[in-house]
Specification:
Elements: E1 11-18, E2 26-32, E3 35-41, H1 47-67, E4 77-81, E5 85-89, E6 94-95, H2 103-122, E7 125-126, E8 136-138, E9 144-146, E10 153-154, H3 161-185, H4 192-199, H5 203-223
Antiparallel strand pairs: 1-2, 2-3, 3-5, 4-5, 6-8, 7-10, 8-9
Helix pairs in contact: 2-3
Amino acid sequence: MSIAADNIDRWTVVDTLREGGGTRARVLKVKLGDRDAVLKDHAGCDPLFSMLLGPILARRESKALRCLSSVDGVPLLIGRRGSRALLMEWFSAVPFKTLQRDTEFWKRYFIVLEQTLAAIHQSGVAHCDLRSLNNVLVNDHGEVFIVDFVACCFKGRRWNLLSRAVFRRFCRADRDAVLKLKQQVAPELLSDEQWNRLKHVGWFARGARNAGKLIRRLSRILLTR
């Protein structure tokens, strides 16, 4: 999507996709020229959270989208709007859980999802929140879309062995999250080895998930009303 920088602020609201509040950014569908786009604005969070963390979260997600600009199924970053908001590509798709499809549909879908996730990891980004059912989208043609990279982890530099080890762990957690999604809509597609992985979630995945819950809880207590 190519839009001149001086036209980024010339948008009109089409629909509210998510109301802001607490730690949640406001998400709007907007018309940008002759194209639809998404405006994600952390100014819609509670004031203290928005002021302290809004710029950090918007910057992290913008960086992730720039790293993933060549990966199909990830929204293109159109541009930043202020310090707490970003404009990105609009996908005409819905959360995968809302579709009722047969096994063959899901078989093709998860092949593409796993390929998309591998491309994301190859580009140096781990998503870290694929267990959220609203972050994996699908359209009627079975095309895969992954959104919301605010919690992502970046691959460290070559000399940073600890950071690279953590990144690999988060990549594995992403892959395990996809197995969990598969279990919900098409459990018949899981192999014996995959069932075993689901039954024996590693300590890192459990720790990361619990740490994420703790951080979100503390953020709500300390930084929201």
